[in-house]
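So, read this over?
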Amino acid sequence: MLKAYFIDYTGTMVKEDEPYTRELLAYFATHSDLKDPRDILGVVWGMIKEIEAGCSGDSFIKNDEKVDRILSSCVEKHGLKGDLNYMHDVWRKVWVHAPLYEDVKPFFERSSVPVYVLSNDDLGYLEESMKIKELNPAGIISAEMVRACKPDRAIFEKALKIAGVRPDEVIHIGDSVTSDVEPALKMGITPIYISRKNDAIIDGVRVIRSLDEITF
């Protein structure tokens, strides 16, 4: 019996291609050796994933320190110049103000069971985002609560404990195979993969294009 939904934040609930991200990419392009937005995103996301892969226990760091490391690396490796404090501030706005996909609020309103948000972002930024967006999840489980980032099983274990459910009583929705689908399967949690832009096929896993496809 289904008792809860877990849902990823970035890319699943909120848009990644949004005004503050575009502002940040434009600043990168005019103040560094990286000119193509695709190259910038490749470098930045590569560093984020690298940092998060080693981000656990005593080595855990929060979002602001991750950004400082990324910007410092771009100064050294990609000739980044300009106002790093300004860039950091815009990055914070991305975490808080990235707009919801249009199907998110109706999903929360329609759900017959509690919905919990799981994210590698920091709790304070997530709480501020939920308040601005007028969303009231049953709970927010962030990486800093367990000092480990998805796909580490600790964040899923924490979510199960907070929700008071067994793995077979919850469905996890996310847009990443490595950070959402695979760890959920390893935990015995049923995953739903959301692929908003392209058709996708994952053996044994339900794939949707919109949260509107989930019926209650």
